[in-house]
Design goal:
Layout: H1 12-27, H2 39-42, H3 47-56, H4 74-77
């Protein structure tokens, strides 16, 4: 898989997600929870990471707080 910007895969939060995934795999059970930016939710560079998480875990819960000030948010832009 040729990623457009593979340097993003070297971000610390990506490494910590992978470490948590590996650790849960080693113990056979666990919960991985933390706050990070939302880049990996829709950025094409992280499609392999998303696929790996979906294959590895039975259940995944995500809470997107829409904190990216540079990205337009449909909910935030809706008339009141």
């Amino acid at each position: 898989m040729e990623e457009r910007n593979p340097k993003w895969l070297q971000d610390d939060y990506v490494k910590f997600i992978r470490f948590g995934q590996w650790r849960i795999n080693q113990t056979g059970e666990g919960i991985l929870a933390f706050i990070s930016n939302n880049g990996y939710l829709d950025n094409p560079t992280f499609r392999g990471m998303r696929e790996s998480l979906l294959r590895e875990f039975d259940t995944i819960y995500l809470l997107n707080l829409h904190g990216n000030s540079r990205k337009r948010n449909a909910r935030r832009m809706a008339p009141r």
